[in-house]
What we know:
Bound molecules: flavin mononucleotide, iron/sulfur cluster
Radius of gyration: 23 Å
Number of domains: 3
Strand order of the largest sheet: 8-7-11-9-10
Helix content: 40-55%
CATH class of the largest domain: Alpha Beta
Amino acid sequence: MPLTDPVLCKRIPTKPWGDPKDRKLITYDEYVRTGGYQALERALDMDPKDIVEEVKAAQLRGRGGAGFPCGVKWSFLPEPDGGRRYLAINCDEAEPGTFKDRLLVDFDPHYVLEGIAIACYACQLDTAYFFIRGEYRHQAKTFERAIKEAYDNGIFGPQGLLRGKVDFAVECYQHRGAGAYICGEETGLLEAIEGKRGWPRIKPPFPAVKGLFGRPTIINNVETLAAVAPIIEKGAKWWNEIGCESSIGGPPSYGTKLMGVSGHVNSPGVFECELGIPLSKLVNDYCDGMRGGKKFKGAIAGGVSMGILGPDQFDAEMDFDIGKKYDVMGLGTACPTIFDEDTDMVAVARNIARFFKNESCGQCTPCREGAQWIYKLIGRIEQGNATSKDLDLLLELGQSMGAMPGTTICGLADGNNWAIRTIVNKYRDEFEARVKPYSVAVNATVGATG
Ligand SMILES: Cc1cc2nc3c(=O)[nH]c(=O)nc-3n(C[C@H](O)[C@H](O)[C@H](O)COP(=O)(O)O)c2cc1C
Ligand code: SF4
């Protein structure tokens, strides 16, 4: 069942999304009436550096995919030098199967805006750009209205944060994307905000030092920023009591996480769960079980680029250890897509390969050419026109792309690598059943020509 006291979505019906008629956008007045902007009030009584320390102590890990510790990222910023400093909020949410940030924007935009205001004050960032994917037309309208409400009520604007409570002003703008997955990659996002093609940048320099318009910039996911307000309101210690420790001696997975479940379940939706919940529990208790009572066959771990959990990994704990424990890249967005026993995994692989082929920005040869090649090979296998050698080649390609440091600029190539490699390794029998043995295929060709 959902947490009795959900942290992030306390105002969002989470099981499942509920009757659309019952869903309600929280306006500024409603938000304030239910305790909203009190965390900002509290934050503005603190020294900005203490806010960063509190977020560090909470060990809040980024909710956009990489799980990087938020407070640590904030502390990479240089000292203010009087010039502009930016916050870029990543609401691109183009990872297939991921639809969690949309819920926050749809129903509780001021929760996100409060996190933005606190982050800007903590890091002394004077300008916030909310980058929202092009397809989120409705959400963009909702968020634009919420920004206007925040301005009208003195949260942002030249008078200083929270109606001039502090002498530090923040301007907040929304920037709509044009619908490319690569603009979710943090430096592709910066390029897009600058009005250019969303081509990822080579790092270093890192954005904290040289980001938007060449100035210090922090890039955070929507959900990460939404978590900042409750941490400041209730304290890092409280946050550390939710979630779980690492079972393999790694960093902990504290707090709750929005988990959007799609695929072959009875009640798909977005749920707020404590990190560490087993996938099987998420499916059975929150999503009313597998659709039609069918057997679990596998799941996209948390966005397609994380790879696939196999048939024997239904009980995988949804926390930041998942990558090391279950041979996937990581927790990613924690939005799994569930497959039942009838799923054709070769077709799933072809669909994933098509996505990466279409979304590669084309700057790096291994990613641009490799993605095309992988797609062609899987298509050949699916149609029964491939040999066992093609399968070996597919695995070789899948294993090498993005793996060699310095050959690709961003993580899209690794995503393609993990997705293809894990699906072929974990369902190899299905791929093998579709290919002809190499020697037979060669003999048949020789026979035909000779
Ligand atoms: C190809 C690609 C696409 C990405 N798409 C998103 C996205 O849609 N939303 C997001 O928050 N992060 C996305 N990321 C991760 C961002 O680069 C970045 O790590 C994240 O926004 C940082 O925020 P966080 O630390 O709060 O998680 C993507 C990364 C890659 C490589
Ligand atoms: S790895 Fe792929 S998506 Fe990323 S910059 Fe290179 S070509 Fe573009």
